[in-house]
Amino acid sequence: MSEPQDLLITMSALLSNSVAKSTITLEESISQMKLSGMDVNQIKSVLMNDLNNGGRIFGSYRNAIKMTTKNGVGYNSNIASQKVYQDSSVEEFQWVGISDKRVCEDCEDRHGQTGTMEYFRTVGLPRSGFSICQTNCRCQLVPMNYKGENIEEPIITKKPESITSLKMAGKHTSIKDSEEWLKSNLKAKDIRLSGIDLDSRNRLNKLFKKHIESGANFKYEIIRSYNSKSNVVARSGTKELMLNKYHLKDIKKYEKNAKDWVASGWWHNGGDTFESIMSHEFGHGLHIRHIYASGRGVRINTEIGKKINDLYGEYILDIRNREKKFQSDWIASGKSLSDLRKYKDSFNTKLVDLEKSTSTSIVYKGKNEMYKYYKEVYGGEYISNYATENISEWIAECYSMAFHSKNPSSYAEKVKRLVLSRED
Q1: Confidence band (pLDDT; 50, 70, 90) for 29?
Q2: Virtual CA dihedral for 333, 337, 339, 342, nearest 10 degrees?
Q3: From CA 199, how far away is CA 188, in angstroms rounded?
Q4: Under a CB-based contact definition with an 8 Å cutoff, are residues 272 and 255 in contact?
Q5: What is the DSSP secondary structure assignment for residue 239, as one 8-state letter?
């Protein structure tokens, strides 16, 4: 049978199906109106009104005809393409799908499949009705040697995202575009990130997106880089964020060292990545407007700040009580406090190797795994040693922990909710 005949048969079947469905709908509607007590003239009036205005009964039929015609045009286009391929002696084809929310499961699985035209006729051609999307299929068969755009990925039908769209965070291919994204999404007026490579910028933007989607209301006006050999990767105030390009030149090395600091309990569990370090600084940038450590005291500016301060007091008391209970249970088991000190020291065997050390360098041996001890004593509620510096560091460590730890402290989750909440 010829291709035009196939098209004619397919179109005829689709039209017949639409007519049959509409007939059933019409009959059901008439029966329902009769049962409700309407006379013939009233029923006629309702049907004419539905026909003229494209209502529920005739509107669906009209839409079905439009769709059938549209699909017929597409199907005819596919047939024409197949004829061109056949005349050009193309033997192998590749299935190219559409990448959007409307793609059906059948077509999504087909993307990238290869075979002869005979094979695809057997398993089902685009618009042939084999798939969930039936004749609405938008996929294409192209020759195997086709090198057109997007052949390795499903065809993209959507308009490209603006470089400043929130969705573009972490996807920029130029430093200029990444800076435009920062200015647009953070309303920052001054971006000076010289010496910061594109990968770090994309990681930073992607992290900003994560926090913004969680409800963070950043007030940064200045985001800039600086150079320092200090052990600090970044600093943050309410309106200014600074990144240390000295460490960002080799952030992987810094992250490797950070794993040791997490294991020692100095930083929170999950705090060994560039993202967790920056989230710590974001925490500072967000909490300062509510509460912050001032000398030996605490300055509270808002009701949210008061709630955070109260929570900090609860945390300190909880940690002390957990430690007392652990000691009490230890002694009750028949062991001494001296045994407890030795047990605690067993988690930190990182000692100075005097034979290898010099006046200019210190060589350590062993390891520091105090985090394991803290987890045993405090049941996962302990934040970090760094968090004991003051309430500001406790808040920042909690905030970062809530985002980056697989099992964050309940206090970390509460701090995150408070920091991200907004007062009217």
Answers
A1: confident
A2: 140
A3: 20
A4: yes
A5: S
